[in-house]
């Protein structure tokens, strides 16, 4: 009798344990289905597709490498970081510190660090990169800015070559590389004699087809920031100039010059009339 009672209790406990296990399994299954449905409604990726979609997204945003260039490698310099080799612009979903990749500021910081190491292989690779057809203007300007601030002994050479050889193609919100070269050289005329020599070489001695607007800007910058001795030299240098607009800009730059006597001598040598104010050089619109 006692053994029958014990056996009955055991069977009852087993049935309760089995029922409890079934209930817990159902609750777990329902929770998983609810979580998955909620995630899909919010547009999130399923766990099984995270890895494959991550690889596909990087491949989708990476621009194709130029013909003959292996992505992620620089053939001319083993020490040049892969971030500088094409493809050089990647987009990241997560916010990162510092400038956005692919911008002029980001390129400037990367190349500044490299140029300050003064490694010959890196310098050779950077020069090749500067004039490569596939290099973007923001990267080129970043290189040139870094070469001046490093400072690099190749800065003047690179600025002159970029002014002469690269296309003057400005776009909305983006200055062309040759325009950047003229502006940078003009801003630092008083800092380094090599800067003046570089701008003079582009204006007076270059055989490259530099845009007329850039030559006029260069001439005005040189004259406005010239010493008395420089103005005396320019009386000879500008003698063969045939661009009337360029000479008019020279005359405008002589107005209020810090060396008035030398400015007057240059104006007489070039047969220029110095106006009282710069406004006198603004062309009036023709009357209808």
Oligomeric organization of the protein chains: single chain
Biggest sheet layout:
none
| Shape call | rod-shaped
Low-confidence stretches: 1-6, 47-95, 277-288
Tally of individual helices: 12
User: What is the radius of gyration computed over CA atoms, rounded to a whole number of angstroms?
Assistant: 35 Å
Q: Span from first to last CA?
A: 128 Å
Average pLDDT works out at 75
Structural class: mainly alpha
How many strand segments? 0
Classify the helix fraction into a percent range.
55-70%
Q: Quote the beta fraction.
A: under 5%
Fold and architecture overview:
Mean pLDDT is 75; it is low at 1-6, 47-95 and 277-288. The longest helix is centred in the N-terminal third of the chain and has 40 residues, at 2-41. The protein is mainly α. The protein has helices at residues 2-41, 50-61, 104-117, 120-130, 137-149, 155-165, 177-187, 193-205, 212-224, 228-237, 244-254, 260-269. The chain is rod-shaped, with a radius of gyration of 35 Å.
């Amino acid at each position: 009798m006692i053994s029958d009672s014990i056996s009955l209790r055991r069977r009852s406990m087993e049935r309760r344990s089995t029922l409890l296990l079934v209930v817990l399994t159902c609750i777990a299954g329902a929770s998983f289905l609810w979580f998955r449905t909620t995630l899909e409604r919010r547009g999130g990726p399923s766990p099984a597709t995270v890895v494959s979609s991550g690889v596909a997204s990087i491949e989708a945003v990476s621009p194709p490498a130029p013909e003959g260039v292996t992505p992620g490698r620089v053939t001319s310099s083993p020490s040049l970081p892969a971030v500088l080799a094409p493809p050089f612009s990647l987009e990241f979903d997560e916010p990162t510190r510092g400038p956005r990749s692919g911008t002029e500021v980001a390129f400037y910081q990367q190349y500044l660090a490299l140029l300050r190491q003064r490694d010959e292989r890196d310098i050779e690779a950077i020069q090749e990169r500067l004039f490569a057809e596939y290099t973007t203007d923001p990267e080129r300007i970043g290189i040139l800015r870094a070469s001046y601030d490093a400072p690099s002994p190749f800065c003047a050479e690179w600025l002159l070559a970029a002014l002469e050889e690269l296309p003057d193609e400005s776009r909305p919100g983006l200055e062309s590389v040759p325009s950047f070269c003229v502006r940078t050289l003009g801003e630092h005329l008083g800092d380094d004699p090599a800067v003046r020599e570089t701008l003079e070489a582009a204006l007076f001695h270059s055989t490259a087809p530099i845009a007329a607007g850039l030559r006029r800007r260069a001439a005005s910058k040189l004259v406005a920031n010239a010493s008395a001795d420089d103005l005396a030299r320019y009386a000879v240098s500008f003698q063969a100039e045939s661009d009337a607009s360029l000479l008019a800009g020279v005359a405008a730059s002589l107005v209020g010059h810090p060396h008035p006597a030398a400015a007057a001598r240059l104006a007489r040598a070039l047969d220029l009339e110095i106006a009282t104010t710069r406004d006198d050089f603004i062309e009036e619109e023709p009357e209808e």
